[in-house]
């Protein structure tokens, strides 16, 4: 079946706003659009940031976060939700309380921006582990996030697989532990589901972290799940999508922004 024959698929990003549009809700929406789904956005937190700095964060009332989700649910057959920066425990709980049981859910456990700014506090991280990761269809930590959440120091391929198993044991149906920050086997992600571990290798580009690449990857996975692809295939397609966005990343000193020719 082609994507067109599948009809319109709806996906929702529940995440933080990045006014520079390099990460957060803005890149999520661009990604969903480019992947061919009708993306929608629930504002869970606000940031003031540019290419160099995150200057400030403002919380959004968790009741209002829930209200945004419930209002969309009244009207749209939402095929997949993706979460990003949720900020704090009350917001994580509000989101968990608004999601129907058994829904497809991609959890990107955003904790710290590459520029060392804390985006989700400790209690929010704990709430993610308790309330959302156990319900994840796919959880997509990077190495620093996996280390913080699991308490496992990731120093080699074996400890990376241990950390992926930790998320699986928390109840996530599938795990993509991203290798972009690895000092070993760089660029190789560990994918784990009930069929076991699979390594996903990708191109390694000669520039460090690209702003928003994690958001882009998780949103692409959510889009392909919304389009009806099996999870393992959605992850592979998501990896291809983010590879394109890294290949065409635009330089905005001192960083690069993900850029997909389709945007
Ligand atoms: N701002 C928001 C709202 C985000 O969701 C994220 C990442 O998920 C970031 C900033 C951080 O992006 P990066 O670490 O790629 O700079």
From TrEMBL:
This enzyme's EC code(s): 2.7.1.49, 2.7.4.7
Coiled coil location: none
Broad EC category: transferase
Sequence intervals crossing the membrane: none
Keyword Transferase assigned: yes
Record flagged with keyword Transferase: yes
GO MF: hydroxymethylpyrimidine kinase activity; phosphomethylpyrimidine kinase activity
Cross-referenced Pfam families: Phos_pyr_kin
Keywords: Kinase, Transferase
InterPro entries xrefs: HMP/HMP-P_kinase_dom, PM/HMP-P_kinase-1, Ribokinase-like
Residue ranges occupied by any Pyridoxamine kinase/Phosphomethylpyrimidine kinase domain in the UniProt entry: 18-252
Record-given protein name: Bifunctional hydroxymethylpyrimidine kinase/phosphomethylpyrimidine kinase
Gene: thiD
